[in-house]
Amino acid sequence: MTKGPVATGSPQPADASNARRRVSSPTELFLAALLVASLVAAAHWPVLGAQALALDDDLFVTNNPLVTQPGWQSTGRFFGEVLNPSSVGGYYLPLAMTSLMVDYALGGRPEDQRVFHRTNLVLHALSTLLLLLILEHLFGALLPAAIVALLFGLHPLTIEPLASIGERKTLLAGCAAFAS
Length: 180
Known about the structure:
Elements: H1 16-19, H2 26-44, H3 57-62, H4 65-68, H5 72-80, H6 94-105, H7 114-139, H8 142-154, H9 159-163, H10 168-179
Helix pairs in contact: 2-7, 2-8, 5-6, 7-8, 7-10
């Protein structure tokens, strides 16, 4: 009489090769990040030429003296209006407003919006790269992580925040969420 496997009541260890995730090398991760960032930047590069003002861009830049007169006083007001925001119609957006003010100080103007759009494109590419890193870390699979990050980075719905100056808040929120 042959004896079969003895049940011990405890789970058997999983096959070690199936339990381990494949760890991407730093070089592979760098090359994937470079490829993803390049494709996102190339696809959205035409946004740098966008010169139309969107619905609320005048509130955020054109008619906002705190943005058009950059300085510490404006920054202090952006951050100090916690309970009674007045710089943009009741919105408390200190980081977005400060970043728009910095872009204005760097030469961004309503008649030449390239500086604003460049910052928007950098924030979007950074968000896409952060998503790539998160997915690769969570699942240990670089190719699927890169594909999903590209789907996020190239999706047509991501164009509106890039082309609108006032949507800086959306890009900063996405970037901060992925960074956290």
